[in-house]
Structure formats: C-alpha cells, structure tokens
C-alpha cells in the first residue's frame, strides 16, 4: 500500500469515527433538550387543570371547559378517577384516545411509540386531603419535533459526507505534495541504477517542508560523496598503476640487460641483480601499503584494547634505532594508557619514525604526554623538512614532496595516508609543524576515553 493511500485511509477512518461520535452526541442531546421542553408544556397544562380543580374544591370534574381551554390539536387531555373511569376527556386523535387510562400516586412521564411515531405521555395524580382522587393524563404527538429531527439528521449527514469527501481529496492532495519529492527521488535512483551515472534530485522551489528539503539535500550530499569516492578511486587506480609500472619497467630492462650481457660481464650481472632486488623490494613495499589501505576501508578494521603507549614507543625506538643505527630519544612520563588498536598505533608510530629516519640525519625525539582529555604523541626530526605549501598534501595517497622523490628514498607515498586512516579511526587529530631545512614535528592527539 502506498504511503499516500495509507495516510488517506488513516485520516478518513479517524474522521468517520469522530463524526459518528459527534453526530450521536448531537442527535441525542437535541432529542433530550426538545423533549424536556415538550414535557414541561404538558406538565404546565396538567398543573393548571389540578389548580382549577382545587379552586372549585375538586368538584365539576366532568366540566368540559376544564380541559377544552388548554387543548391543542395534536394532544389528548383527560381526567381519570377511581376505578380507572375516564371522567373528562378532549382530543380528536383516535390513537391517543386509545391509550389505556392509568392511576398511580406519583408523577409518571414517558415517551411511547404508537404506530412507529413518538408520543409523550404524562400522568399527574391529584389528592383531596391526602386521598388519591384521580390523575390528569396528557399525551402529545411529537410529530413536529420528529420532523425537525429528520432535518437535523439530513443536515448532519450532508455535512459529514461533505467533510469525508473533503478529507479524502484534501489528504490525497496534501500527501501527493508531501510524497512528491520521494517519488522524484525514487525515479532518480532508478535512473542512476539504469544508466550507471550519478544524478542529483532537483529541489523544487515551492517545496516548503523542511524535512523533505533535508531529505533531498541529504540524498544529494550522499550522491556527491559517492561521486567523490568514485573519482578518488579512479585516481587511486591510475596512480597505483603508474607506481607499479616504474619498478616493473626497471626490472624488465635489467632482465633484458642480463639476457644480453649478463653471462659474460660480471659487473653488469651484479648491477642488474642489485637493481632487480631493490625494485622487487620496492614493489613488495608498495603492494603491502596498498593492501593495508584497502583493508582500512573495511568497517571491522579496529581491534580495541587498553595498552601502554609508552612501552610501545620504547620498544619501537629501540628496534628501529638499532636497525638503522640512529639515536632515537624517548621523552615520556610514566606509563600512558590508552584505548585503541595496539597494532595500528604501533604501525602509525612506525610510519612516522620511518619518515623521520628517512628524511633526517640528526637524532630523533619522541614525546608522549597526557592531559585530562587527551594523549599527545610527537615525532620530531631535524632533517630536510617540508615546504609550508606542501604540508596540506602530505597525507594524500602517493604524494611525495619533490625533493624527497628525487632523493629516491624508495618511499611509495602511502605511509602518511595509512597513518591518517589510523588517526581517523581513533578519532584523533594531527598537526604538522615543519620548516624546510630545519626539521619536522608531527603531533598527534588522541581523545582519552
Ligand atoms: P612510504 O612511507 O610509503 O614508504 P613516503 O615516506 O614517501 O613513502 P609518506 O610517508 O606518505 O610517503 O610521506 C609523504 C611525503 O611527505 C614524503 O614523500 C616526504 O616527501 C614527506 N615527508 C613525510 N615525512 C617527512 C619528514 N619527517 N620530513 C620531511 N619530509 C617528510
Ligand atoms: Mg613514509
């Protein structure tokens, strides 16, 4: 069922329910009020008859003048005395006259149905010195009242049906306007699915509801994002192919060289083997980095635990210091515990220290500090530095500052983009302070959880 029909059905159902309750209430309220008025009329007449009787000391019960003065054409008035004898009676309506006489020591009033028509019946007793003498009975057809009620029913029906019809069309129109943009979005999605191209939903100027505007905007933002991601991906593939091509070209030309002169010339052989080994290593490094980056796109990349960062830093600096024969100084307070993925943080530090080693010759400083809300890791080197204009791009994939590239350090330019991913999944931030020729400090802050 469409949203539109559901909404319409729901509104109409409730409207009908409310209308039924309202109509029932109005109908019975009107009946009650009007019948009470009629009854009051009859009671007044009976009281007048009894008053007159009292004035003449309860005599002259049969006097026709007693009743004829008060009589109305749609009524019956009579006086009933002992043994249910009708002592006096006026009325032309046969059906009213056939009502059996009644006598009881209390007032009685009720609405009766005679041949399907409503008749109001009233019986008021009168006494003489405490003895029940008789009753004054009055009956009145409620024909006029009933015809008014018919009109009322007609009016209520017409307005109710009108309201329902109006509600059906109104809700239908309203929901059409409401769901219009949704339909437009569905159409756009189908179009995207069909053509494989990314389209944005155009927002109608007359669309007023904020939520729908937000929906359309969110949809378009999502499309923009997908667009950017695809674009990014394309670039990545292009860059990756390019990066893979260079070492492969080198390897293939050296193998050619080996084939031709390798057998006879030991010098050429050694050079070729050396170069091929170096390029293969480079390729391995490149592919490892690319795989890590691809892995980082997955959601369950993180494996959270609580660990001591200081010990990780100390261990790494010792291993790397020995391997590369470099002085790496660690400045830290006691144990600094953080929550995160220990292996990833280790990888992050490795990337930063590796850069510091590659791009400097002086000793390297590692600082670990913690404050109330954050843990700060700093890697400082005093090497070639990065020009200020290049800093914003350092974290891009395959990005290498030209000078570094020329020095052919063998870097793939993926290290810092992996580092950025690791910082991002830990909700951290990174700042780079660098001056060309003076050195670089990369400072990372992780929120403390
Ligand atoms: P990889 O780390 O993948 O082996 P890479 O070191 O070239 O290769 P990144 O670590 O991403 O790549 O660094 C990107 C570029 O930023 C480097 O090529 C280098 O030019 C520059 N850079 C990074 N760290 C430093 C540093 N400490 N000092 C000077 N330049 C740096
Ligand atoms: Mg690097």
Automatic annotation (TrEMBL):
Compartments it resides in: Cell membrane
Any GO MF annotation of the entry: ATP binding
Primary localization class, coarse: membrane
Enzyme class: transferase
EC numbers on record: 2.7.13.3
Residue intervals passing through the bilayer: 12-31, 148-174
Catalytic activity: ATP + protein L-histidine = ADP + protein N-phospho-L-histidine
Alphabetical keyword list: ATP-binding, Cell membrane, Kinase, Membrane, Nucleotide-binding, Phosphoprotein, Transferase, Transmembrane, Transmembrane helix, Two-component regulatory system
Pfam family, one: HisKA
Entry membrane topology: Multi-pass membrane protein
Protein's name according to its UniProt entry: histidine kinase
Domain annotation HAMP: ranges: 176-231
Domain of life of the source: Bacteria
Residue ranges annotated for the Histidine kinase domain, each copy included: 239-449
Organism: Cohnella suwonensis
